[in-house]
Amino acid sequence: MTEKNLLYEVLEQSNEGFLIMDAKGTVITVNKAWIQLCTNVLDFDKNVIGTHVFEFKEYINYFSVAEYIVKNKTSYSKVYAPFEDRVIFSSGKPITDNSGKIIYFVVKVNDISDIFHLRNQVENFSRIKELYIEYSKSQTNADLNPIQADPKMQKIYQKCLAISATDATVLIMGESGSGKEIVANFIHNNSNRSEKPFVSINCGAIPGTLIESELFGYAPGAFTGANKTGKKGIFEAANTGTLLLDEIGDMPLEMQVKLLRVMENKVIRRVGSEKDISVDVRIIAATNCALPQLVKEGKFRRDLYYRLNVIRITVPPLRERPKDIVALSKYFHNLFSRKYHHTAAKKVFPDQLLEQFLLYDWPGNVRELRNIMEQLVLLSENGTLDQNIFLSIINDDMSIQNRIITENVSVKQIARLDDIIEETEKQLFKKAYRMKKTSREIAKLLNVSQTTVIRKLKKYGITTD
């Protein structure tokens, strides 16, 4: 095998592409790898051997490195994508003899598609990391500065600020999912204990036989299956900080006695131990039950109720906070867009969907709104949050217009029909006002004259500012 043939075979076996031209730019040889990487013309070598590089444009539709180095008599390199699925690094240089005279031009190409894909993955990972950090920050900010667009909630948080610096026991009442734990977090985060633990326990989720050991812990060998070294309870975990006793209304009566004793004496005793342990804990209790009614029924201790009810905060349901519905919807829209990496092309939140949100009663309150918005961000297609998905989630076959007009009326006692009609009408206009604000819009919504709306709003003392 001649030296020339050997060189050709070596080039043919290489994964790197080579194009070799003489001093005038005429192609001498090109290997298989260069053809595969730089052109889709299978018989490229047959067509171009002996052809000048400036005639390449018939076979390739991009500005080549080969053309550049021949034209400018200098080295040159470039990254480009000759095809959609391929990224090439091409470098060329003139080869000179001992006197410095150019005798050849050589172009070498490498497929760096995998490197680019890897770089894109790293960049995507970095962007995902940034979005996660933004998401985490928004969660933290929500604890420190919860959404409070509605005047009712603004008054509540003003009250929370006023009491946060004290150690007064707080009783938070409100429907399930209305944001009681968020209020409790806000009080803790603005208190002198903000750098200390905030511990929450759901009193209704723990069996009565276990709640004492969960709250107060247990000594080694206290019962069969107990940890040999014993276990700290929730009170010890929350020591120097704040303890949220959620769903306090579900706590068994026998446990209520022991909780009262701890609140009064500030000491706990682990199950199976005779040693008292001092604890310094601020207690916040929360419930969706009507505790005064439970007290009357003998299901909740009166003395404990008074001990808890030092500062009482009642969180209104979401349906009574229309401005919060708007603000929270937008907040959760942004939150889940960041969480699921849709920030670059965030789905549009149409006004019509927001109107449906405002008309819906939200029986699950803020928790339900959060859940529904997360589903909408995940499931909606075509770049817009889908109203039909919302309607299917709430399983509502009625139109939104009928929903406001046919709001359920609960009749708890016999009364004059005129009084019932008047009270229902009052509720209807109040809800319509929360939605539309102007008499013209309310008239259109309820299909009555604007004069009627003005007269009814005035009759029921509903502000029209």
From TrEMBL:
GO terms for biological process: regulation of DNA-templated transcription. Pfam families: AAA_lid_14 (PF25601), HTH_50 (PF18024), Sigma54_activat (PF00158). Keywords: Aromatic hydrocarbons catabolism, ATP-binding, DNA-binding, Nucleotide-binding, Transcription, Transcription regulation. InterPro entries: AAA+_ATPase, AAA_lid_NorR, Homeodomain-like_sf, HTH_TyrR, P-loop_NTPase, PAS-like_dom_sf, Sigma_54_int, Sigma_54_int_dom_ATP-bd_1. Coiled coil: none annotated. The keyword Amino-acid biosynthesis does not apply. GO terms for molecular function: ATP binding; DNA binding. Residues 146-378 form the Sigma-54 factor interaction domain. It comes from the Bacteria. This is HTH-type transcriptional regulatory protein TyrR. It comes from Geosporobacter ferrireducens.
